[in-house]
Amino acid sequence: MKDTPLCNCERDFLLKAIEEKKRLDGRQTYDYRKIKITFGTDYGCCFVDLGKTRVMAQVSCELVAPKDNRPNEGIMFFNVELSPMASPAFEQGRQSELSVKLNRQLERCLRNSKCIDTESLCVVSGEKVWQIRVDVHMLNHDGNLMDAVSIAAITALCHFRRPDVGIQGDEVTVYSPEERDPIPLSIYHMPISVSFSFFQEGTYLLVDPCEREERVMDGLLMIAMNKHREICSIQSSGGIMLLKEQVMRCSKIASVKVSEITELINKALENDKKARKAGGRCGFAESMPQERITALKKDKTAVEMTDVSERANEIVQKAEALPQTVPSPVVPVPGVGQVGQGPQNTWGLDEEEDEEDSDEEQEEQVTKMEEEHSENKEESRGGEVVEISDSEEEEVVILHPEKPDRTPKNTGSTSHQKVAASSKKRTKK
Amino acid sequence: MAGLELLSDQGYRLDGRKASELRKVQARMGVFAQADGSAYLEQGNTKALAVVYGPHEIRGSRSRALHDRAVINCQYSMATFSTAERKRRPHGDRKSTEMSLHLKQTFEAAVMTQLYPRSQIDIYVKILQSDGGNYSVCVNAATLAVIDAGIPMRDYVCACTVGFVDETPLADLCYAEESGGVSSLALALLPRGGQIALLQMDARLHQDHLETLIEAAMTACKGVSKVLDEVVRQHLQEVSVLTGE
Question: Which keywords accompany this UniProt record (chain B) (predicted)?
Fold first, then answer.
């Protein structure tokens, strides 16, 4: 299924908002959404929430034969899975452009920067090495998948423990976790990707775009860095023209963001370690009974509560007092009654008045018509009028100049006459 | 890699070049009669062939058509004999799919696609011999092919890779240097405005060195653009002689 396109109104609205430095979720231009890291019961399993974007990473390992050209190095394998449950736009089974992009970017971010010591994964040179497999699954897509993927992957790798191996002569023994404590991977540094989106030909820049913002953006720049301010990979995408200054500015912002995120990851890892040591329920299992597994769970949102009661009082005081209550029962006009408390009921009263008015009008019209009839008679008697045409309008026009001297008994104003004439015409038709 | 000395004390590289020296670029335009535009480009030992068809009506599913601009379709492939080890699949693996994506992105930025709504431009690039800098050679070859096809572009798109060794940026890396664990940066530039159409970097590099590296890449790209401009002018001269003008 193709993604539903964004309508022009919404597109314009988003772009206008970005121009005014406002974002849909109230963030500042360089703000990240809330990042939350939770771990599974097993080693090497982690969930990352980036706002509503949610991904899961699972690390696993197995013993395989090494590659011919690297006989004493372990193998790293990365796989990013875009399942249709994250977004209807993701298709099952087919490698889309996005999935290739994410896969390659993750590979470049983690493998090419050599953040993991692959030589320590060698068991028997040229025969057996560990293959570490990182599977990242999208659970919910709300923009900025790459950052969520990179955080999830590196956190899962840090959390992962591989079984210990003993070698005696030619014999290789893999010990179960009960026999010997599993060993963590040796990780040199933690590359974390930070995405920047560009709008309006690169005039506006946002950090951590959400899904809506991603749809209206012109291009994306992904910078992966570690906390030592070393850039591990840069990738621009989308047809935008960047200037060197923009790239430099982005790299500066990225270094700040990366150090924040690294701290967060370390804290999460430490918390998990403590929880495991304490022996209590930890990780993903713990969140199950609290129904926190769904993507659209409600988080507690902080609301400004300091001056709520004062403001409420203020509003009550400023508000207008209710109109006087009337004693019950009330009968304002015959046929209309009111029982109970509350302001006076005006229902039905207006309508009756209107009817009366219209009745009066009709009566007036009738009298005026009679008057006019008499006028006409006078005119014909005077014989001054040359022609009496069929047209009612002309009659009226002729009447005007002669009115003052020939109609002494007509006290009505000229406008009244006009009205009368036209009403006469109406009645005739 | 410890074994290879990428930059000697005298300031020479493995193949005898200076740090900021490009490899020899040789190119020809209009190598195929069938295609709308074609070009062959050699950059040192890396050789690429680019072919452009279009702009033409959308082929395949009509839903891909864009109402306000042309779709650019790129395919990158490597000849099976292009590398030292024979390649099994010329295209379709992750790396070449990614390369196709990058080429597409580069040319979407450079070609004036808004002139051809609801149409498609195909760019096919094949690496005949690979000796480092595949992406940049492809971009340079494709630029010539697009120009040969007469499709308007904002500017030449020139690409170049740059490495960083011993605090010195090395321009236009060859395969030995690329695989030697140098942090390399590929950059596609529209030289006149200094706009970057694509920026890609692998391996670790400290943030402070980024600026010098980008700077070096931009100078290298400008050098390439001069060569390409010369090729285009020479080609036009040859063609106008042939048509008797």
Answer: Acetylation, Cytoplasm, Exosome, Nucleus, RNA-binding, rRNA processing
A235 is written with which tokens?
A: 């990738």
Q: Is residue A314 part of a domain?
A: no
Residues of A in contact with B89 (CB under 8 A): none
Q: Does ipTM surpass 0.90 in this model?
A: no
| CA–CA gap between residue A358 and residue A376 (Å, rounded) | 27
DSSP B39: E
With CA atoms as reference, report the closest residue to B15 among B164, B128, B178.
B178
Beta B119-129 vs A122-124: how paired, if at all?
unpaired
Residue A411 pLDDT: 46
Confidence class for position A201, pLDDT limits 50, 70, 90: confident
How many beta-carbon pairs under 8 angstroms link A with B?
Answer: 93
Q: Which amino acid, one-letter code, is at A35?
A: I
Q: In this structure, which CATH number among 1.10.3720.10, 3.20.20.120, 3.30.230.70, 3.40.1390.30 belongs to the domain B25-243?
A: 3.30.230.70
Which residue has tokens 């104003």? A413
As beta bridge partners, residue A242 has: B196
What is the rounded radius of gyration, in angstroms, for the C-alpha atoms of chain A? 42
Tell if the CB–CB gap between A112 and B63 is shorter than 8 Å: no
Interface test with B, best of A221, A241, A253, A255 (most B CBs within 10 A): A241
Q: Identify all chain A residues contacting B101, using CB atoms and an 8 Å cutoff.
A: 97, 100-101, 237
| Single pTM value for the model | 0.75
Q: ω into residue A66 within 30 of 0, thus cis?
A: no
